[in-house]
Amino acid sequence: IRSQSVLQLRATLWIIIDNLNEVQHFEIGGNLELNPGFFSEITSITWKHKGNFVAEWIKDDAVPLEYLGDLKGRANVNLTTGVLTVSNMRKSDDGLFTVEINNKVLPVSFSAVGIANLENHRVEVIVRPLTCDSSADKCSLDCGDAFTDAEPVQYFWKKGGTGQWEKGEKRINISKATETFDTFTCRAQNRFSQKMSAPHDNPYKKRSFSTCSFLNKLCKIA
Ligand SMILES: *[C@@H]1O[C@H](CO)[C@@H](O)[C@H](O)[C@H]1NC(C)=O
Ligand SMILES: *[C@@H]1O[C@H](CO)[C@@H](O)[C@H](O)[C@H]1NC(C)=O
């Protein structure tokens, strides 16, 4: 009975881990490293990408290590650990990687998803509406345009030149309540990179006292 329940438990565990699929993010232009987490001796290994052979090897030169397909020239398999490394990854390399070791398809597979480095994006504070000024009820600020190929992106905002960075949304609301700050600055960040905008003048900022006293008449006219 005991060995039967152990068998049952094994069967259950197998089902649980059967669909273990890890999303693996890579930096476009960078390396992808996939670790099958196999800790016994490897006597044969096959890596596939979207169902096509990437690498194949059988011990004792039955089949020498061979690389095939799109990733040939960029792929490398460590025959001790089974780790697959692919260099110079492109967005078109997105997709499912599977691995077979010692003639068994491992329960783990990897969904590779490429993310762009924000270095090549323009990060700036954009005022909405563009006509926003201190007479407006409220306005909002966007941190940049779309960073679609760099998602997921997190956003941070800084009020004034010396304020603390605060985590926020891509769009924040501003109003008269924020008129004390000279500038707003935003920072976009993803898992591979971050980039900061230039400080943007606060549309609600009142003329400073010294400017007013210097240009006293202009202030009164305004
Ligand atoms: C394979 O990986 C192991 C462990 O990281 C490392 O010690 C070894 O040098 C690697 N082998 C090759 C050929 O790179
Ligand atoms: C900004 O204002 C809009 C419209 O009034 C509102 O839907 C949104 O939740 C506000 N955003 C924040 C971060 O408060």
TrEMBL record:
SUPFAM superfamilies membership: Immunoglobulin
Domain of life per record: Eukaryota
Signal peptide: none
Organism: Poecilia reticulata
Domain Ig-like: 107-197
Gene Ontology terms: cellular component: membrane
Main subcellular location: membrane
InterPro entries for this protein: CD2/SLAM_rcpt, Ig-like_dom, Ig-like_dom_sf, Ig-like_fold
Compartment(s): Membrane
Keywords, in A-Z order: Glycoprotein, Membrane, Signal
Name recorded for this polypeptide: Ig-like domain-containing protein
Glycoprotein as UniProt keyword: yes
